[in-house]
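Take just one protein record:
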Amino acid sequence: MAIKIFYGFGDVLFEVSMALIPLILFFLFFQIFMLKLPLKRVKDIFVGIALTFMGLAFFLQGVHVGFLPVGREIGDLVGNWKHQWILIPVGFLLGFVATFAEPAVRVLNAEVDKVSSGYIPAKLMLYTLSIGVAISIALAMTRIIFGIPLWYIIGPGYFLALALAIISTETFTSIAFDAGGVATGPMTVTFILAIALGFSDTLEGRDPMLDGFGMIAIVALAPILSVLILGLLFKLNESRSDG
């Protein structure tokens, strides 16, 4: 059993090493020539790097042996249900929970809270992004069920995002486009994408290559729209206060 769980773990360790080594070399260059941090601080940084390495390695291994297979199994199971529309509210719930648990989203929210001195609370950002992604995944599941072309969603969506960016504040516009990348993290990509692929593969008349993929593009768009709308609400509230 343990052998199956750690099958391919060597490849994962190699991939994580190749990702972290350039960052370590980059830090060492600045440490030697510019930063010159105290030895204790450098030790703490390398302890953090070691923990990051182990965390990424075990997480990615868990993705390969757990998240992806169970996601495909759930997608296959739901695809055989008589009432397939149930996947729409299920997708909404999974999208909310996955974003709520996404580590990168929490880092972004904490940084926004810190830089804005509490003007944009981390909890408010967390719920805004979670609800936005939840709606987008429900929309993606609807697209798979009814065979809606991807461009019918992406085209108007990005047009709306650009229109909102013009009238929203510069602060929220900057945060919004970063949030789009942050929300498409490992929790969403690995688990929910696997469900979408399994579902589209089982559903009659659907091609997983055409209908299963494209969900991440919709998910990346959702935080942009939700944060820009939040910015408009802040702007409206400020205008009322000034009035």
The radius of gyration is 21 Å. The chain is about 85% helix and 0% strand. The chain has two domains: 1-66, 81-238.
